[in-house]
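A note from the maintainers: we've had questions about how concatenated examples are separated. There is no special marker in the raw files; a new sequence line simply starts the next protein. For clarity in this README we add a label.
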Amino acid sequence: ASLLDISDIKNTENKLRESEANYRLLFEHNPLPMLIYERGSLKMISVNESFLKHYGYTAEQANQMILTDLYPKNLKTQITEVAKKIQGHAYVGEWRHLKADKTMIDILVTSHDIIYENRNARIAVINDITERKKIEQAVLLSEKQLKEAQHIAKLGNCEFDHKSKKAIWSDEMY
């Protein structure tokens, strides 16, 4: 090997180390819970600090888990099937997860395939949307109750759309 070849190899090695350091920084210090699992076995092979804090697991516990351990019994088969189908594709979906204390949370997960430690894997970024879901349910309930009250009182309402110059009347107004 020539001097130039060795210098090219060293340069490539340095770039690889820098890239790995950047990845670690983005993964470890991400404020959102993240995990990496092996595609075939669904074994969890890495989680970030945010995952451990949010879910209440220790690093040792997380390293012994498979992806389906995060799901309630009624979703285990479904997530296994989805995990098979999404290989090679980016994925975004809503699910329910169990934390270490068995608290159920609603999540929005975004994932894609990666090679991690020479293994076919998948990285997932998790957003806890439990509070958002509670608010959505409260708004739906409130709307339903308002409609019922209007119906019982034989009162209606009208909304005017300034852009289209159209009025939208509730059923009670007819």
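[label: protein 2]
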Amino acid sequence: MTRNRQLRVMKFGGTSVGDASCIRRVAEIVRNAAHDSDLVVVVSAMGGVTNKLIEAATQSEAGDRSSVEAIFTALRNRHDMAVNSLVHAPEQRRAVLRKMQDCYEEGERLCQGTDLRRELSLRDRDSISSLGERLSAPLVAASLMECGLRSEAIEATEIIVTDSCHGAADPCMEATSERCKGRLRGLLRRGIVPVVTGFIGATPEGALTTLGRGGSDYSATILAAALDADEVVIWTDVDGLMTSDPRAVEGACTIPEISYREAAELAHFGAK
């Protein structure tokens, strides 16, 4: 990290990391941006993964073990396919697969506990739904390593401190800023690109929390504020704010200009 280089936080959503070919494009974007900026990358889960994890959690509460097993088998196959396509160095591939195996085992254990109790706590729902980002970040970091960038996957539980409102936690910015500067700036000074899990944080006691659906954008802005970054770039599959959801409304178009206040009001009333 050098004084004459800007610090940018770049966030990539679920469609941007949806499969191996998408992640390759992300790696190319980051590699190009790294020529003239210090970078912190924030990633979402692969598209659709969080919904599947929440489905697994609710099916566990209902006692449907076969559905839960099918969901985890499909998730494992999808991520393993991406690892095998993206990560060619044997040692690096083994390291990524070990991290992923830990996530699968944690998810299965949490779902088994929910099944036994027939009750899904908010804390367990957060932990299960967080697994998508925790699978995605090591994969993106390894992909950056493959294209010649030094990178390290960071779980946001280490650096984003929140209150204990599971499912919609708020950040404690003073503590978050202290941890971000201590953990991330050291990596940046050594020329390492941190790849941080979006959507999640942890209480001061270490209990995992989530920032609410769509929380990875929030994660990126939290990190940017904590690090005094020069810019936040949100990569997604549309060119900007739109008049409505293009998946639901034919003829939706990009809004040419909007103030921060107007955008905040839209977000307050539920716009994505």
